[in-house]
């Protein structure tokens, strides 16, 4: 993974010192509240319902075990002993005092981390396939490009005051595990017909109150030109994006207004002016960065070790865990192990300080000391020998982290909701727990199969309800928390926006409604067809009828 | 009001401004003819709000596309914490009140070093006043 050199280290130290000065000036009244706000946001601090939230950047979701221990220490010393992993592969601390923030940034800098540009109207943390460099289906390691784009976008002088936030995701796998279709810019590494590697560029994806699946902006941009191309896109957006209405300020609205063809033409004209300038990295600098991502030295290992086969035979729980949480690795003797942060009573994505330390130990003991944070708010230990999986599972269970929910109905994505957020209409976390508990039977979960349930507490859609098989959106119905259900959304390949199935429900009704949807699906599916495939084949009318005709009666009775 | 030199941190008496471009105006509103007409006078870009970043793109456009080489002043609502961003987008000066000078100096000194080489395009490199030509490596980008 990328290691800081003296330049990078000096950079984060200076940035922390700069922020300390800004906080002092704010406390002395020399900076107005208005002027302080964007400076604060661009250092990761965001005023929520009860306290400041600090969103710490985990560049493209990659952490070392040492860094995770460092984060655990911060959670313990400055917060209430836990942190919350987000859909954009970052971690949030929800109970921060403003006066502590400069000390926290100083502490982060000691282990090469920061909170720069995790909020505010700027280019946010670049997200990436969590299996980068370990995936069985990737063209090349996208982390190299994620790091190059991170450096380019960090404190970019021209793009620190954009019309609105700007999110970039990169994926290099045959399967899109970074939800590139729901980002302002989605980058897919692809091969040209001449076998050259480059990027297919998507633009204008996003959720919120105007959900859009990103459209193709360019089918192939050679990788050496990616920074100048991105700079051209950003320049068009910065100059022409709307600033009069916060809800119409994202690039998706600009692309809608101009039309994708006119937008592409404007980008190409701009790109023509800067393409052969010095924005793109010289080869030497590219090689310096790429060298950090050389594959780890992994000894040859058996794809079907006896220890694994025996453990699978004798322990049904372990067998299920391997099936769900043991993801394929580019080497057949290895796996990438998902550590689920979903369990009864746990807000999705939450980890206590001691759990973070336990995860760091798992990575040191059974992997290569590296941890990845996923879009689904779980973590992954990459590069685990398959014969080490039983020991990893045993240790994970000991730490209370042995859940095998990856990809199943209980692997719920949720925003913090009204428990923390002043934008929310409704709570997300208690509902996530109710749904988890309703399906808290491993065999039933396995029978249902792959199914994504996402919950957002308001239309800003931080819980990505638009992109779920079953999406749940908190709405305010005459002062009472209600929830609208959408069906048929998808984040990865063939990204799609879920459709609302009808009027909303009270909180206590929702688990039964989900139950009705699941029962209907199980009764109507063909063979072992997934929920997504079932919806694609038969539409949502059957589900709607089940929920609103006889289902509501049943739901209300239960 | 006085001019704060973004490169040296010196203060300067306000000079003559030949043309003001509104930060929020379209880039096509300013042309090479506007630049030629002002002769030796300065060009200014006006910020209505510090959080409206269009002025930064306007500056780079004026420097790199229109190849303006003279004094470029940031006018209106700009804050000390933007000093280094302004300089790196091609502004030479910010118009500030005298009482704010110390804070501008301080903010300029506290700015972290640059991660990218924004104005180092071959076209722009030799055109920016008060900037020395740099070798193409990122690492030598100095905090001034």
Summarize the structure in short:
By secondary structure, chain A is α+β, with helices and mostly antiparallel strands. Chain A contains 18 helices and 21 strands.
Highlighted features:
heterodimer; A: 558 residues; alpha+beta; Sulfite Reductase Hemoprotein, domain 1; five-stranded antiparallel sheet; B: 144 residues; alpha/beta; globular; disordered C terminus
CA radius of gyration of chain B is 14 Å
What is the class of the largest domain in chain A in the CATH system?
A: Alpha Beta
Largest sheet of chain B: 6 strands, mixed
Radius of gyration of chain A: 23 Å
Morphology of chain A: globular
How many domains would you count in the coordinates of chain B? 1
Overall strand count of chain A: 21
Explain the overall architecture.
The complex is a heterodimer of chains A (558) and B (144). Chain A has 558 residues and is of the alpha+beta class. Chain A has four domains: 6-59 and 87-110, no CATH class; 142-290, Sulfite Reductase Hemoprotein, domain 1; 306-398, Sulfite Reductase Hemoprotein, domain 2 (Alpha-Beta Complex); 413-557, Sulfite Reductase Hemoprotein, domain 1 (2-Layer Sandwich), CATH 3.30.413. In chain A, 38% of the residues lie in helices and 18% in strands. Chain A has helices spanning 6-27, 33-41, 65-78, 101-110, 143-153, 226-240, 251-258, 260-274, 283-291, 306-314, 316-325, 353-366, 389-398, 429-438, 442-448, 510-524, 531-538, 541-557, and strands at 45-47, 52-56, 62-64, 82-85, 91-96, 127-128, 168-171, 185-191, 197-203, 215-222, 326-328, 334-339, 350-352, 370-373, 379-385, 413-414, 453-456, 470-477, 480-487, 499-500, 505-506. In chain A, strands 16, 17, 18, 19, 20 and 21 form a six-stranded mixed β-sheet that branches. A five-stranded antiparallel β-sheet of chain A has the order 1-2-5-4-13. In chain A, strand 18 and strand 19 (480-487) form a beta hairpin. In chain A, helix 1 packs antiparallel against helix 2 and helix 6 (226-240) crosses helix 8. The longest helix of chain A has 22 residues, at 6-27. Chain A is globular and about 60 Å long. In chain B, strands 2-1-6-5-4-3 form a six-stranded mixed β-sheet. Chain B is globular, with a radius of gyration of 14 Å. Chain B has helices spanning 32-37, 54-65, 83-88, 101-110, 122-125; strands at residues 2-5, 11-12, 17-22, 42-47, 72-76, 93-96. In chain B, helix 2 links the parallel strand 4 and strand 5. Chain B has one domain. The two termini of chain B are 24 Å apart. With 144 residues, chain B is an alpha/beta fold. Chain B contains five helices and six strands. Classes of the chains: A alpha+beta (558), B alpha/beta (144). The interface between A and B is large, with 42 and 46 residues.
């Amino acid at each position: 993974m990328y290691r800081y050199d003296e330049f990078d280290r000096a950079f984060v130290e200076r940035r922390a010192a700069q922020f300390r000065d800004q906080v002092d000036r704010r406390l002395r009244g020399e900076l107005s509240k208005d002027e302080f706000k964007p400076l604060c946001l661009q250092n990761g601090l965001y005023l929520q319902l009860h306290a400041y939230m600090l969103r710490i950047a985990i560049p493209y979701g990659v952490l070392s075990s040492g860094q995770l221990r460092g984060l655990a220490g911060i959670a313990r010393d400055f917060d209430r002993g836990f942190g919350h992993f987000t859909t954009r592969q970052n971690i949030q601390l929800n109970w921060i005092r403003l006066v502590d923030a400069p000390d926290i940034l100083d502490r982060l800098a000691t282990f090469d981390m920061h909170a720069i540009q995790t909020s505010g109207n700027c280019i946010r943390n670049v997200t990436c396939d969590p299996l980068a460099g370990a995936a069985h289906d990737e063209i090349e390691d996208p982390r190299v490009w994620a790091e190059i784009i991170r450096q380019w976008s960090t404190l970019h002088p021209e793009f620190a005051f954009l019309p609105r936030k700007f999110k970039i995701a990169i994926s290099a796998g045959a399967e899109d595990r970074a939800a590139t279709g729901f980002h302002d810019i989605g980058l897919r590494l692809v091969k040209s017909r001449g076998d050259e590697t480059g990027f297919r560029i998507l633009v204008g994806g996003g959720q919120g109150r105007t959900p859009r699946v990103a459209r193709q902006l360019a089918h192939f941009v050679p990788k050496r030109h990616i920074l100048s191309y991105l700079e051209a896109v950003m320049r068009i957006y910065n100059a022409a994006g709307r600033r009069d209405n916060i809800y119409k300020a994202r690039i998706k609205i600009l692309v809608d207004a101009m039309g994708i063809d006119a937008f592409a033409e404007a980008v190409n004209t701009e790109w023509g002016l800067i393409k052969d300038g010095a924005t793109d990295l010289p080869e030497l600098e590219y090689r310096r960065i790429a060298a950090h991502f050389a594959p780890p030295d992994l000894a040859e290992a058996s794809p079907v070790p006896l220890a694994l086969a025996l453990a699978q035979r004798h322990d049904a729980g372990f067998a299920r865990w391997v099936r769900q949480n043991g993801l394929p690795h580019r080497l057949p003797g290895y796996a990438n192990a998902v550590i689920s942060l979903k369990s009864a009573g746990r807000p999705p994505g939450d980890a206590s300080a001691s759990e973070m330390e336990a995860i760091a130990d798992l990575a040191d003991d059974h992997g290569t000391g590296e941890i990845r944070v996923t879009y689904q708010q779980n973590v992954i230990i990459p590069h685990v020998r398959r014969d080490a999986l039983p020991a990893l599972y045993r240790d994970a269970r000991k730490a209370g982290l042995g859940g095998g929910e990856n990809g199943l109905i209980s692997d719920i994505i949720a925003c913090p909701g009204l428990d923390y957020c002043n934008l929310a209409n409704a709570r997300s976390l208690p509902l996530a727990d109710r749904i988890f508990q309703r399906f808290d039977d491993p065999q039933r979960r396995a029978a249902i199969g792959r199914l994504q349930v996402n919950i957002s507490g308001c239309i800003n859609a931080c819980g990505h309800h638009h992109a779920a098989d079953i999406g749940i959106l908190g709405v305010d119905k005459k002062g009472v928390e209600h929830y609208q259900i959408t069906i048929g959304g998808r984040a990865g390949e063939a990204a799609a926006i879920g459709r609302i199935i009808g009027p909303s429900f009270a909180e206590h009704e929702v688990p039964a409604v989900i139950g009705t949807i699941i029962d209907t699906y199980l009764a109507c599916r063909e063979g072992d067809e997934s929920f997504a495939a079932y919806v694609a084949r038969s539409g949502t009318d059957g589900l709607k009828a089940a929920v609103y005709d006889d289902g509501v009666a049943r739901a209300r009775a239960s | 009001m006085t001019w704060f030199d973004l490169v040296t941190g010196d203060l300067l008496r306000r000079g003559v401004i030949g043309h003001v471009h509104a930060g929020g105006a379209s880039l096509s509103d300013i042309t090479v003819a506007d630049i030629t007409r002002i002769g030796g006078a300065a060009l200014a870009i006006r910020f209505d709000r510090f959080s409206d970043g269009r002025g930064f793109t306007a500056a780079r456009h004026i420097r790199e596309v229109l190849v303006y080489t003279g004094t470029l002043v940031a006018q209106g609502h700009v804050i000390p914490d933007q000093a280094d961003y302004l300089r790196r987008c091609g502004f030479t000066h910010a118009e500030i009140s005298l009482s704010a000078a110390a804070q501008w100096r301080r903010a300029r000194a506290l700015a972290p070093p640059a991660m990218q080489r924004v104005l180092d395009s071959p076209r722009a490199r030799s055109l920016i006043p008060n900037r020395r030509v740099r070798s193409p490596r990122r690492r030598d980008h100095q905090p001034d």
